Structure formats: C-alpha cells, structure tokens
C-alpha cells in the first residue's frame, strides 16, 4: 500500500511502551497509530472498530493474552489486519504458538527502531516477517517437541501439490526468500512468486508464516534435516 498510510494498532499492557511506539511510528512516514490497547480483549474490539492494517501485539497481558487475541483477529474473515508479535528471546514457545494462531511474524522488543518500522511495512504488504532465520529454527524445535508431530512418511494435506510446489514449500520452510529460491532452482522471481501464491491457495494458508508451520507439521520438512 505505497500510496496509503499503514494503520497500526499498538497492543501492550505497559503504557510507557505504548507511548514510545506511538511516538516512533507516528514520526515515521507512511505509518499512523490509530489506537492502543492494554489487553487482548480490548485489542480485538479495537480491531473491529478501527480496522488497522497491522496489529503490533504483545504476548503477556492480563485477561486475554496476545495469543488468544491473535487467534480472534487472524480468524475473523471480516478483518484484514496482520498481527506482528513483539516478544523477547525468553518467549520462544509463545512465538511458535502465535505463528500457529495466525500471526504474520515477530520482532524482538530490543529491535532497532528503523528495523521495527521496516517490519511493520513488510507485514502490511501481506508478507510474513520470517527473515530472521531463528524463526524457522524455532518452528522446527517446537514441532519436534510436539506430540502431534508426524513423520515425513505421513504428509498431510499435501496431496494436491506438484513436485515443484513441494520443493518450493520446503525452501520456504528453510527460511529462503523468493529471490534465494529463484537462484536455487534457476528460475525467474515471478515463477517463484506464482508457486508461492499457489501454495497459499491450495493449502488455505494466510501467509508465508503459516506455510512454514504447515511444512513442519505435515512432515514434509523434518526438524533438523
């Protein structure tokens, strides 16, 4: 949305953090903070009332936490808001749960201001913020621990994919960008974008983040491979 201001809802139970985000984002060209919330329930109500493009969501909050709020926001087809989780390294398991709930990515609370602004713009464009490769390592680790993890011999929900689409999905799960996948398979960037679009459609995935989770949970990609 290059010609429109990205509307951001800031969700955190600490007023000083919300105030800091508001000042930073409102001072950034193309970004506008349209509202704040101190808990998940308020965040869901604000999303429905204010229609933000991106929700900057904390995880640990009183009452409804950020995980449950993310499920409501991502699961509401009447909303077009993308959820960007703000977290710390000590909350890895919660980050994975947020990705499963429909979050489009995460940033750390000590992320430099310019990187936070860039992350919001990436998510607003409909992409998933999976650039830090720690994200896919994190997903792999928690799928490995999950009792519901299936072996690679039992892929689920992938029957309708072509062999090349499976290969592209595997590269997405490895944290590869579209440009890197294009180099890997010696094809054009547009070809890769088409494959990713088809994957999103066939697997009914909201974005790239969900593709990563599906790739591991289906067994197509085995943690540690």
TrEMBL record:
SUPFAM superfamilies: CheY-like. Residues 154-219 form the HTH luxR-type domain. The modification 4-aspartylphosphate is found at residue 58. Residues 7-124 form the Response regulatory domain. SMART domains: HTH_LUXR (SM00421), REC (SM00448). Keywords: DNA-binding, Phosphoprotein, Transcription, Transcription regulation. PANTHER family: TRANSCRIPTIONAL REGULATORY PROTEIN NARL-RELATED, TWO-COMPONENT RESPONSE REGULATOR. This is Response regulator transcription factor. It comes from Cryptosporangium minutisporangium.
